[in-house]
Amino acid sequence: MIQLGDPAPDFTAETTAGPIRFHQWMGDGWAVLFSHPKDFTPVCTTELGEVARLKPEFDKRNVKVAGLSVDPLGSHQSWADDIRETQGHALNFPLIADPDRKVSDLYGMVHPNASDTLTVRSVFVVGPDKKVKLMITYPASTGRNFEEILRVIDSLQLTSMYSVATPVNWRRGEDVIIASSVSDEDAKKKFPEGWKAPKPYLRIVPQPGERSETEAPVR
Ligand code: BEZ
Which residue in 98, 108, 153, 183 is deepest, having the highest Cβ count within 10 Å? Predict the structure, then answer.
């Protein structure tokens, strides 16, 4: 079973964009690897269209996206036409064909008590260090919210650069929390403008690295 912080297993696979070796395909950036239960099914069709629509947002964050199911490559290729036709967005990221369940088994994407044969809706976010940063699992009957995945990626990328954590429902640009691991003494150096502290353990600062709208552009 894969857990947060574990190395993301490497693999080779056939995809709609040609064969890939996962780690090499990721390069120095981030990746989202997600499974869907089955081609030519309604919820999956809407999800794949949505990921295609959001592709520029993943690109902006230096995140590559790959989908996966146990269907064969020919099935993925035929289904791509339906996704474009019904969702208005053509597949613009690789869809992994995993008929022998090589990748699904590596990542624990088949949950036998949900379905013996189909992958559940798993999401893995992998960092540039090739370690697993996020895992989410949804059942077949519930389509995912991929804007939430982008929101989490914003948090993961911010917290990997600064000693902060993000509060409930946080969105990019909003205030953040100084990490509990940072002493007040160190916080004074890292956040010289100070912080709001409604409780000693709840230290709130503006998001670091975010330019305010009134600030002159950096040239
Ligand atoms: C769907 O995408 O609609 C779906 C796929 C597998 C099982 C149930 C629903």
Answer: 98
